[in-house]
Design goal:
Helix content is 46%, strand content 16%. By secondary structure, it is α/β, with parallel strands linked by helices. Strand 5, helix 6 and strand 6 form a beta-alpha-beta unit. The longest helix is centred in the first third of the chain and has 27 residues. The termini are far apart. The N terminus is likely disordered.
Amino acid sequence: MRITIRFFGIWALATLCLSLTGRAAAGEEETWQQPLLITSAGQSAEVQLAAVLAKRAGLNYALEKTAEPAHLEGFKTLVLSLGASLKGLGAAGLDVPQEKERVRRLLEAAAASDIPVLCLHLGGEARRGQLSDEFISAFLPSARAALVVKSGNQDGLFTRLCREHEIFLMEADRAVNALEPLTTLFR
């Protein structure tokens, strides 16, 4: 019994240390740079909300809903708004495979240029579902940090993916409350 408790204590301490190291490296204490390129992964309306938050935070940004790798020129951070909308995809003239390929190419170009990725999920529970979850699972692992509305993480999908990939996770009660953590990242 004593060995089990001692082992668990050592394991818990080691896990905490690794967790804190991963969080700091993933974005908690680093200052993110501007300007930001904001784009969508799934063409949901929340990409527009991401731009409104960036404006209210006084950040230097550009919104390009269907950004391609060439759009990254001159930007220091890529902000990816996660959430799929079939209506939004249709309006953009894209189908699901085309959108996934566009985002994949964009993330590859960002990685090649050492541009960090911040993923946002501002739609909460209403923007979750099978298609959005496909985009989240495919593209969140490329992020250094994620900012999500808590109701969109009720099942722990963001928590699990962020732990697995050492991504700094921030949660806000509502989309409007995402302003403070967003501002803090770019202090």
